[in-house]
User: What shape does this take?
Amino acid sequence: MRLLIHGADVLPGTAGLKGGPADILVEGERIAAISAQRLPEEGASRVLDGSGLLAVPGLVNCHNHVAMTLLRGYGADLPLQRWLEERIWPAEARLTDEDVHAGALLGCLEMLRGGVTAFADMYDHMDAVLEAVLTTGIRASLSRGVIGLGPSWEGALREGEELCRQVARTGRGRVSAMLAPHAEYTCPTEVWDAAVALARELGVPIHTHLSETAAEQRGCHERHGSSPVRFLAERGVLEVGLLAAHGVHLEPEDLALLARPGVAVAHNPVSNAKLGSGVAPLVALLAAGVLVGLGSDGAASTDTLGLWEELRLAGWLQKTILQDAAAVAAPSLWSLATVGGARALHLPEGTGLLVPGAPADLVLLRQDGLHRAPILDPWSSLVYTTRDADVVVTVVAGRPVMEHGEFPGIDHERIAADVSARARRLLEDR
Ligand SMILES: [Zn+2]
Assistant: This one.
């Protein structure tokens, strides 16, 4: 496919790159040219009018359980452990492949609607999630979550291994995989050792939940005599590569341990706030040299899967707890949601920037919303005023996969109705 976007206002992605009105030519899956001169339409298989629209790189959601749209908002106002044990785990035990497929379809469409072009997922029934990813055209790094509290963990880990092999065969270069022991507090040492050995054999990183709550941190000291980060470091998890969701309750030594190549933290401020888990030390993580991306977490704890709220809240919370309006600037927040996330998920080189040669994962935003006028500072406006509904077009790997709220070949209203019906059946009389 050869896609030409005429006359969009281009914000290439970092404060150092020069933007402005330009034509964007996409050939295959990559950006071939960005030109201030009008490019000829000859040979283009698709031409989009970008006038009045802002072109920015697509957002990367670094931590999700996408099928949890089925449980959106379920168990609101419970703390993490009670929320998991009393509401989420019992409901999840009843999910079928078909439920997860429907929930994942809805979640992928919701993310594309809001300009998310790639995400990391951890869940069960991952064949069904993979199918939804391939159908909707979004990029993904998928992992089969392993809870090691019962005897079934070996089977779950084998499913994770099979997912890695399946994705390598069928992922079309858009899907990759990781292994996913769920968390320190749900996986005994033998599970970690088996997962690390398998990760080395397959050459894949590990995606887990890490230092999410104060209870987890305290409990890990009781169980293992160390922080969760040091426990994972001693099991070799940091060496095989790690995507660590949350990183809220960190000790000074943890920051240094996490600041190594191949390790990234997915910061999920909305989920951490809603579950009352605390505020991750984002500024300290960045100062220590830790790679950080932004994530939504699942819709049961975050309600919506777009990243605009995460961007804003990430900034607001740091300014609040540090009592410093300059704690983190808008372009830095934007980098977390784009290049930071892209590196955390090992996406192709250049992802997160609009430059020739980069993967064509991009978003066109309307600029005329009442909530955006006047646009005095493009970075501030982008980070602090944009909403999902401002996204007009989402392009992934050179293909428009969402235009004006519609998805080519996909009936999104039918999918939303199907998920609502399944969720009611799932939770009825409970
Ligand atoms: Zn999570």
